Amino acid sequence: MLKKFSGSLITKNISMTHEDHLQKALRQDPKCLSNWSFRYLPQKRDKKNDKPLEAIGEAAQLQKSGMFLEAARVLKEAFERTAFPELLELLEEVYRESGTDEQILEMVGKLHNSRQRSVPSSLLFAKLLYQCDRLDEVSKVLDKVKLPGGSTKFPMAILGSEDKGQQMTEVWSDLYHALRYLIAVRQERSEDALQEAKPLLREAKILE
């Protein structure tokens, strides 16, 4: 049916649902598709998005076994290869569940200090440092962060709609200004705090 009615809306919906099921399967078992044949599909399946999902599945299995350091390493290395944003979210989750393991924090720091430094990985590092009350280090990290101008999106691989990419951009931008605001408040720099608060109170959000 997929081949015979390849241009129909129903076939498209079936294909999308099928892909969703495959992605969910990879999150549970990273090796579940290793011997899977996709000859039944009308078009060759793009497997490039499988890699971060396989890493998520592998990390989840390690995390369940209490192997937090190994899980964090899998997520870190996968993010270095793919820049898939969910990997950072899960890396933070593993860090918390580990009891804030210093070695995992150092892994996030290596992402920040790497040649391929990204805004999201640097901001995650700054956030975790702030939660450890290491304000001077947070400031040093934020000084190296350069937010994209205007509506430019962060260079990350995002599965989903254009709107989702924009939402991710706003999340990281808000985190950047929130951290700067909180540090200014803690250091009693009221004027700087006010300046950092302005981007967090976008008029567009109020008028929605």
Give your account of this protein's structure:
The protein folds into 2 domains: 97 residues, Serine Threonine Protein Phosphatase 5, Tetratricopeptide repeat (Alpha Horseshoe); 49 residues. Helix content is 65%, strand content 0%. It has 10 helices and no strands. It is globular and about 60 Å long.
Helix residue percentage: 55-70%
CA-atom Rg in angstroms = 20 Å
Measured between the Cα atoms of the first and last residue, the distance is 43 Å
Q: Give the integer mean of the pLDDT values.
A: 80
Portion in strands: under 5%
**Spatial shape:** globular
Number of spatially distinct domains: 2
Q: Class of the largest domain, according to the CATH hierarchy? A: Mainly Alpha
Major β-sheet annotation: none
H-E order = HHHHHHHHHH
Here the CATH topology of the largest domain equals Serine Threonine Protein Phosphatase 5, Tetratricopeptide repeat
| Helix count, DSSP H or I runs of 4 or more residues | 10
Please give the CATH architecture of the largest domain.
Alpha Horseshoe
- By secondary-structure content and strand pairing, the structural class works out as mainly alpha
Work out the number of β strands. 0
The unreliable regions are: 151-163
